[in-house]
Design brief:
Number of helices: 29
Largest sheet: 7 strands, parallel
Shape: globular
Structural class: alpha/beta
Number of strands: 22
Distance between the termini: 77 Å
Strand content: 5-15%
DNA sequence: CCGTGCAAAAAACTT
DNA sequence: TTTTGCACGG
């Protein structure tokens, strides 16, 4: 425990009327006001940690204990960073300028760009995302014929990533394993090659960004000192999800300054030589869900041992959810044994019960979700306040299919990401080829895109020529005539070379003067036009290519947007931003759409109404987690994270059957459901109601159940005469219909008053038609299924 | 070197 | 179900 002798006096006004402390509960205040070398804020879900962090920063700035430039705040996503910056700005206005508020990765990129020359890179290095790494590893695995030894690209990639997160490298790893094992030997060769290729390409992968920064600091203490002197207050959010490399980075930065080298800059005059920066970390071990990525829960559980004298503040009051939701969450997480007891509570009242629903199929489940969303919407909820979570990205498809038909506006976060689309990666590879000519991967990628007749043979001759003459792959392109290839190919290569040159002149003028902010947009357009990429897509008769052109237009729009936001932004800045954005970052908006995302993406967010879907064994907990140490416990935390995102209403849904890879299999309710006290759940349709498939078999099975109303699912007996409203879906006719190909009703005209027939919902009357063109929506009152909205173009309907 | 067609694999989460 | 990888013929 830290003593109370902290000499610093907090400037400013007394406890009453202080805008930074008003409305905070006592532990929150303490977390804002405490001054000392190390502070751990254990912040339960929804306990206001962002508020505490921002107020703490504002408090440091207001009292002049720190200049903005002396503050480094690390968050997990760019979105969280942006939000924190905005909230600090609200508190202190312009005084926030100069702070580093960013993710681990962006902060490291900034440092590496400045210091790359120190250790054999140039500051124009590029960043390989996981897809780029996989492509490179795939090639190496093939070259080493490693698949024969059971080394798949995926396995190699994850092993390399794990090792880098532990700050190991190929040489270090080689010392720890037996060389008798041929698989290990080949793995080490591949690892070495991988490192070599990255270095040659002047590139870092995601893991390198952290690990290489740590190496840099350790190998060049005087460089590390620059940052140690600069950052006097370091704050780390989501500390429970840091891995060893990130932990080491924080340790390096909070070491006492070693040398007294002068680095210039008036602000630095303030600090005491030799004193370590103060460290604040915020986290909740119950929300640690990234062990698979190397997150080490011990970083937070042993914080007090790592930083003797650290102060610990516990935030348990929840300001987000109703008591019922918290009771459910507490009950679930209590099943994890090795955790410190913690109980979230609220004074917001009991609230609604958790709603449960069991569908016959994933489509049935999705239909329930869509219907319920519409009901919420009619009751006044904004779509933007509703979210649907699932464990795996593949589950989004069924939801999407139903949502499109029900005309529920939705938005998928993550999933098939924009920046992972082939055409976008191609376009970016063109930009990388300009920004970092050493990057062979990028060049090889665009060599034959669009088709220029350059195949593997020609590619090899270029590589050989480069090697023979001691020049780079990029420079070899300038010598088309000497490559020993046919005249057609020579022309193609020369043309590519010219296009790249012209683009370079625009984006990185040789004159040395800074390129104008519009240069990235211009350069990209030139590359896409003159390379023939656009033309090839437009000439294609593949309908998907139309969408590709649109995506590329979108990318051009992104460059414009970037130029607007970053008038000084260079090509490299643009590429860096693109490489480090996650798609969870662009959920900026009040766009009026329901948000669909994985449970992982949901971390750190909150919504009024939350649907947690696919609550089944083998999904959550996921099948693969069963074999991993701590796997099921991490899955439980993930489930807990999902529950605690909800402010007002929580829905838990599952399906009895689930199709994957086109095969239908029977699904079991998740064990986590049983961990929630039965009285908290209001089952609209419990697992017991839908045993067997469809209505036929279930009766027999139901008969065998113990007296209804008392089984472990807390099933209530169904009122005999059908006091319930009809089921939202006509299940007997449902299977198969929804999964049919998207139909096209063309110009089907509907007007209020028309009678229609729907394949699933039967007959109904059109109340109104809204929207235009392909987005026209019919509001229909069905005779038995109630009111629905239908997208006219694709709904399985016919006019009567 | 390119396109076609069939076989086989694939999907757990992310900076 | 959808995507990717390979073999083959042009």
């Amino acid at each position: 425990m830290s003593d109370a002798s902290s000499p610093l006096i907090v400037h400013g006004t007394g406890p009453a009327g202080d805008p930074l402390l008003d409305g905070l509960n006592p532990p929150q205040r303490e977390a804002v006001e405490y001054r000392g070398p190390a502070l751990l804020i254990v912040a339960g879900a929804g306990s206001g940690k962002t508020r505490v962090l921002t107020h703490r920063i504002a408090s440091l700035l207001r009292s002049r204990e720190a200049w903005p430039s002396q503050i480094l705040a690390i968050t997990f996503t760019n979105k969280a960073a942006q939000e924190m910056r905005e909230r600090v700005e609200q508190l202190v206005g312009d005084g926030a300028r100069g702070m580093w508020i960013s993710t681990f990765h962006s902060a490291c990129v900034r440092i590496l760009r400045r210091e790359a020359e120190q250790f054999g890179f140039t500051s124009s290095f590029t960043i390989y995302d996981s897809g780029d790494s996989r492509a490179l590893i795939k090639r190496l695995v093939k070259e080493h014929e490693a698949d024969a030894l059971g080394l798949t690209p995926a396995a190699v990639q994850s092993k390399i990533s794990k090792l880098k997160n532990e700050l190991s490298d190929a040489d270090a790893y080689a010392r720890t394993v037996s060389h008798d094992d041929p698989a290990e030997r080949v793995f080490i060769e591949i690892f070495r090659d991988y490192e070599k290729q990255l270095r040659r390409a002047n590139a870092f992968d995601f893991d390198d960004l952290i690990a290489q920064t740590v190496y840099l600091f350790r190998a060049f203490p005087q460089v590390a000192d620059v940052y140690r002197k600069r950052f006097r207050h370091i704050l780390v959010d989501e500390y429970q999800d840091t891995n060893h490399a990130q932990y080491a980075l924080i340790h390096e930065l909070t070491r006492p300054v070693q040398s007294s080298q002068d680095v210039g800059g008036g602000m630095l005059a303030l600090l005491d030589e030799g004193e370590a920066a103060s460290l604040t970390v915020v986290g909740d071990s119950d929300q640690s869900i990234y062990a698979f990525r190397g997150a080490d829960i011990r970083n937070i559980s042993e914080f007090e041992r790592d930083f003797p004298g650290a102060k610990v503040v516990l935030l348990e009051q929840n300001y987000r959810s109703t008591q019922n939701i918290l009771d459910a969450a507490n009950a679930v997480i209590a099943n994890n044994f090795d955790r410190k007891a913690k109980n979230l509570w609220t004074d917001a009242g009991t609230g609604e019960k958790v709603v449960g629903f069991t569908g016959y199929s994933q489509h049935d489940e999705a239909q329930f979700v869509a219907d319920e969303i519409e009901a919420l919407h009619r009751a006044g909820a904004a779509y933007g306040d509703i979210a649907v979570f699932y464990r795996t990205n593949s589950q989004s498809r069924a939801l999407e299919e139903i949502f499109i038909r029900a005309a529920v506006p939705y938005k998928i976060m993550g999933g098939t990401k924009f920046y992972e689309r082939a055409e976008i990666k191609d376009a970016l590879a063109y930009l990388v080829a300009v920004a970092n000519p050493a990057d062979e991967m990028a060049l090889r990628r665009i060599l034959n895109k669009p088709k220029r007749g350059i195949g593997a043979v020609t590619e090899t001759s270029i590589a050989r020529f480069a090697e023979d003459h001691g020049i780079t792959f990029r420079d070899a392109l300038a010598n088309a005539a000497e490559l020993g290839v046919g005249p057609k190919l020579q022309a193609a290569i020369a043309q590519l070379d010219t296009v790249l040159r012209e683009a370079t002149e625009i984006m990185l003028p040789a004159s040395g003067e800074a390129a104008p902010p519009t240069s990235v947009t211009e350069g990209l357009q030139l590359l896409l036009n003159k390379s023939g990429y656009y033309d090839a897509l437009r000439a294609s008769r593949d309908p998907q290519d139309e969408a590709r052109v649109e995506n590329l237009d979108e990318l051009v729009a992104v460059t414009r947007e970037f130029a607007r936001n970053n008038p000084e932004g260079t090509l490299l800045d643009f590429l860096t931003e693109v490489a480090l954005v996650a798609d969870s970052d662009d959920l900026d908006d009040e766009s009026g759409s329901v948000s669909l995302m994985t449970l992982h993406t949901a971390k750190g967010l909150e919504f009024d109404h939350v649907f947690l879907t696919g609550v089944e064994e083998d999904l959550i907990p996921h099948r693969i987690s069963a074999g991993e140490p701590g796997g099921p416990q991490e899955e439980r935390r993930l489930f807990y994270v999902g529950i605690t995102r909800a402010r007002k209403r929580l829905y838990l849904s599952l399906a009895m059957t689930r199709a994957q890879f086109g095969e239908v299999s029977v699904a079991m309710p998740s064990r986590f459901l049983q961990e929630i006290p039965a009285h908290l759940i209001d089952w609209r349709q419990s697992p017991g109601d839908v045993n067997g498939r469809g209505g036929t078999q279930s009766r027999a099975l139901n008969a065998r159940r113990p007296a209804s109303g008392s089984d472990r699912w807390g099933v209530k007996p169904l009122p005999a005469g059908g006091g319930l409203k009809p089921k939202s879906t006509a299940m007997d006719r449902f299977p198969g219909l929804v999964t049919n190909k998207v139909r096209d009703n063309g110009d089907l005209e509907l007007a209020p008053g028309d009678r229609i027939r729907h394949d699933d919902f039967g007959e109904g009357r059109v109340d109104a038609v809204t929207g235009e063109g392909a987005k026209r929506i019919a509001h229909v009152r069905f005779d038995t299924a109630g009111a629905k909205k239908l997208l006219i173009k694709v709904a399985p309907i016919a006019k009567l």
